[in-house]
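quick q for whoever's on today - can somebody do inverse folding on this one?? i tried earlier but teh output was garbage lol. tokens:
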């Protein structure tokens, strides 16, 4: 027999461990391999096999996903080493109706999901990443990495982030990467996937909403959309509107720093950030 690759070995072991009968490769991402599997020839489930390079961060997120207990999130049945055995979601993402123009409906759905994710549960996972640590790349970035015309945006957003950290609030487990395309349709309603596993201010979990969904930069940059999203999220979750907008601006700058470090363009974020800062100033 030829030597199996690590992913083939992990898949074989998972099939035996959980008595699975059939596997179909679905996707390979920079972070994992995804398989659709069958149990007893009828029940569909998913196997997510983490790549070693991201096993620590993704493992942290998977344990948080398991901690949610299927409430507002995909259900994790079991985790063994770098393999997650979980609910199969074959519905589309929340990004689809939002890109089709139903943004308020999408924002209401996000608020509903977050209300479930943020419910108190005990005990919280022990290895969550502190939000302040997650933001270190923003503070470590050399402003000269930013386009000359956008350096004032960087300075203002960094200042807002520091002010937010200076006024701490409740510290709760956070999804850490909640956006429209990480929320999938299911027969149980909209469910979140792929958390990062962060500990911090509840309002931060809405920050990513303001620079998403993918392929909808015009919508995210629209001041009316920013205001409407902030209104809906603040009213439905009872989180301070100014704090929501502050985290949105700070996170947009952090995302730009990540993209710059990866050699990616930041034109989409630069279209949104000035309007986020303006909304924050007016809040």
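ok took a stab at it. sequence:
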């Amino acid at each position: 027999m030829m030597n199996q690759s690590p992913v083939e070995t992990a898949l074989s072991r998972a099939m035996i461990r959980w008595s699975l009968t059939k596997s179909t490769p679905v996707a390979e991402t920079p972070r994992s391999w995804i398989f659709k599997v069958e149990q007893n020839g009828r029940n569909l489930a998913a196997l997510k096999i983490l790549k070693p390079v991201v096993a620590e961060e993704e493992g942290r997120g998977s344990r948080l996903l398991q901690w949610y207990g299927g409430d507002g999130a995909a259900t994790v049945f079991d985790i063994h080493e770098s393999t997650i055995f979980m609910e199969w979601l074959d519905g589309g993402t929340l990004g689809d109706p939002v890109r089709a123009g139903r943004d308020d409906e999408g924002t209401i759905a996000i608020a509903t999901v977050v209300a479930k994710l943020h419910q108190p549960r005990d005990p919280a996972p022990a290895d969550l990443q502190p939000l302040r640590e997650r933001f270190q790349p923003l503070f470590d970035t050399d402003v000269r990495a930013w386009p000359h015309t956008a350096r004032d945006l960087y300075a203002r957003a960094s200042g807002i982030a520091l002010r937010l950290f200076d006024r701490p609030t409740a510290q709760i487990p956070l999804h850490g990467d909640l956006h429209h395309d990480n929320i999938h349709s299911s027969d149980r309603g909209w469910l979140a996937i792929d958390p990062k596993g962060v500990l911090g201010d509840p309002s931060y979990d809405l920050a990513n909403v303001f620079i998403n969904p993918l392929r909808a930069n015009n919508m995210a940059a629209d001041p009316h959309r920013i205001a409407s999203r902030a209104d809906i999220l603040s009213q439905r979750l009872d989180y301070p509107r100014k704090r929501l907008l502050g985290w949105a601006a700070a996170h947009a700058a952090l995302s730009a720093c990540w993209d710059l470090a990866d050699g990616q363009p930041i034109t989409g974020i630069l279209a949104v950030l000035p309007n986020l800062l303006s909304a924050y100033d007016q809040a």
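fwiw Residues 6-87 form a domain with the Phosphorylase Kinase; domain 1 fold (CATH 3.30.200.20). also The two ends are 66 Å apart (CA to CA). so keep that in mind when u check it
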